[in-house]
Write a structure and sequence with these properties.
By secondary structure, this protein is α+β, with helices and mostly antiparallel strands. The protein has a domain of 242 residues. Helices cover 30% and strands 18% of the residues. Strands 3, 7, 8, 9, 10, 11 and 12 form a seven-stranded antiparallel sheet that branches. A hairpin with a 3-residue loop joins strand 5 and strand 6. It is globular.
């Protein structure tokens, strides 16, 4: 796929990177509205438990005092305090950021499949993966693809290193968007590989995530994290802000308690209707503000959890949500856009 083909996924092109955002309780009950779409082997356990009406482990935690403490600690915590040139640039456009990562991987984007309440780390890790791909393919950043981000490290760092910074000790599973944002900005993620001959993140492990979510990032790994931070993070408060971020290449970790009804699967347009309550983080990775039904493409972390029609070649485990629903999610105040990841340098030399 050449550069001209990519432009059809990003309208008139993406905004500039490197200067911010520019143009160029730990147990949550899911409401009865969330139902098992199709009885099939392998349906994610959270979806099964929700369908039964049981309590499921919360992944996103709504803790206003902790979120407010983070906001007070930031010079410019909100997108609307950043450069105003981004405003309105997503209106009437179709931008599909997940396509960039699929081009890097050379295959359809596989869904993540969380095993514990670590959805916040899933949303941020996949967001960093997509941000990296966009920077490489559309911004010609001097970086190379080295692998996907390890969710366990983001989960651990958000809860321990950053949670304790703001005087909070977690019990049970879960985290906040702003704490994951703090970690990826002030430290940074690691990749799915082995480090120092001892720490192996090659394959996702819910058990390891839970263990590190109690103890934190190993001290020996913290200097390695700090080599690759995300340059800018910002809270988005509306559909319009989210739309404009996506249009300029900035993925968004959507953190809220907005649920969706999955009974019957996606509708003819690939959408799920709102319904029920999920304490959850998912990734906003595409927009369609051009159609008669504007909305955003949300990537979940429950495996291929829902069936039904697709549009714009969306990946498994994803669905479209109406603009008004995404606006409501953002107004809960913990959805974060990502920009300017310090990835892995490209080596322009020959090996003999």
């Amino acid at each position: 796929m050449d550069r001209r083909e990519f432009l059809k996924y990003s309208g008139t092109g993406l905004g500039a990177f490197g200067l911010g955002f520019l143009s160029t309780n730990s147990v949550t009950r899911l409401a009865d509205g969330f139902a098992q779409p199709v009885a099939r082997k392998g349906l994610h356990k959270l979806a099964r438990e929700a369908y039964k009406g049981n309590l499921v482990q919360g992944g996103w935690l709504d803790i206003p005092k902790l979120r407010d403490a983070w906001i007070r600690d930031q010079a410019r915590p909100f997108l609307n305090e950043m450069d105003s040139s981004i405003k309105g640039t997503g209106a009437g456009r179709v931008v599909l950021l997940y396509k960039f990562l699929e081009e890097i991987l050379q295959k359809p984007l596989p869904p993540l499949d969380q095993e514990i309440g670590d959805c916040v780390s899933m949303g941020f890790a996949r967001g960093i993966d997509i941000l990296t791909a966009v920077q490489i393919l559309m911004r010609n950043a001097p970086q190379k693809w080295q692998g996907e981000a390890a969710t366990e490290i983001i989960y651990a760092g958000s809860r321990v290193e950053c949670g304790r910074k703001y005087g909070y000790n977690f019990r049970g599973d879960g985290s906040l968007g702003v704490l994951a944002a703090e970690f990826v900005k002030c430290y940074g993620p690691l990749l799915r590989k082995k480090y120092l001959g001892t720490y192996d993140f090659t394959h996702y492990s819910g058990d390891l995530a839970r263990e590190l979510g109690r103890s934190g990032v190993p001290d020996a790994l913290e200097p390695l994290c700090k080599l690759h931070p995300v340059g800018y993070v910002a809270i988005v408060n509306s559909w319009e802000e989210s739309r404009d971020c996506i249009a300029n290449g900035y993925p968004i970790a959507l953190c809220s308690n907005q649920g969706f009804r999955t009974y019957g699967g996606r509708d003819k347009d690939g959408f799920l209707p709102p319904g029920g309550t999920w304490g959850h983080c998912m990734l906003l990775a595409g927009i369609d503000d051009k159609s008669s039904r504007p909305g955003g493409l949300i990537i979940n972390s429950w495996g291929n959890f829902v069936d039904g029609p697709k549009r714009h070649g969306q990946p498994d485990g994803s669905f479209w949500a109406d603009a008004s629903v995404i606006d409501r999610m953002c107004k809960q105040g913990d959805s974060v856009a990502l920009s300017s990841y310090a990835g892995y340098p490209k080596n322009d030399f020959f090996l003999y």
